[in-house]
């Protein structure tokens, strides 16, 4: 009887691995929100890491997060490293920007699992003077990530945080505008 149970478990594990191997090798998450502020008013909150951390939903999840800024205060090479028992350990480095329009970041997680993703913020001016802010993240999905993706929807999990963050940004920016 035990042999049949072990064989059954082995078949299930192999089926899970085979199914995971057929899943996409990359992932993408995107959310956007219209904010009643101009791209110029939003830029200090989106284009600079210290401004971003004022509305960063992950920093708000752990007020005890330890962080360190390095490199230039703004622009390419600006970097933020963090360590948190609630949201993990990692860094983000500003890799490019088009002032008032877009920011590109390299996002590297070390804990709870290693991941290397690209993040982009796009500021799209609306005819009425407001701005639609797009928050995008994409990256590779290794076999472990694909297995996790069977049980955890990355778009739903990260998307909720992106939505919270954009609401935080909206609240701060509209209070300033």
Structure description:
It comes from Pseudacidovorax intermedius. Pfam families: Polyketide_cyc2. By secondary structure, the chain is α+β, with helices and mostly antiparallel strands. The chain has one domain: START domain (Alpha-D-Glucose-1,6-Bisphosphate, Chain A, domain 4, 2-Layer Sandwich). The chain is built from six helices and seven strands; from the N terminus they run αβαααββββββαα. It has helices at about 1-20, 40-45, 50, 55-60, 145-150, 155-175, and strands at about 25-35, 65-70, 80-85, 90-100, 100-110, 115-125, 130-140. Strands 1-7-6-5-4-3-2 form a seven-stranded antiparallel β-sheet. Helix 1 (about 1-20) crosses helix 5. It starts with a helix and ends with a helix. The model has no long low-confidence stretch (mean pLDDT about 90).
Kindly list the characteristics that best describe this protein.
177 residues; alpha+beta; Alpha-D-Glucose-1,6-Bisphosphate, Chain A, domain 4; 7-stranded antiparallel β-sheet; 6 helices; 36% strand; signal
Task: Spell the H/E element sequence.
Answer: HEHHHEEEEEEHH
Overall geometric form? elongated
Overall tally of structural domains: 1
The first-level CATH class is given as Alpha Beta
Strand portion: 35-45%
Overall pLDDT level? 91
CATH-level-4 superfamily name: START domain
Question: Total number of β-strand segments?
Answer: 7
- What ranges have pLDDT less than 50 throughout 5 or more consecutive residues? none
Give the strand order, joined by hyphens, for the main sheet.
1-7-6-5-4-3-2
Helix proportion of residues, in percent? Answer: 25-40%
Q: What kind of oligomer do you see?
A: single chain
The major β-sheet equals: 7 strands, antiparallel
From the alpha carbons, calculate the radius of gyration and give it in angstroms: 19 Å
CATH architecture: 2-Layer Sandwich
Q: Enumerate how many helices there are, as a single number.
A: 6
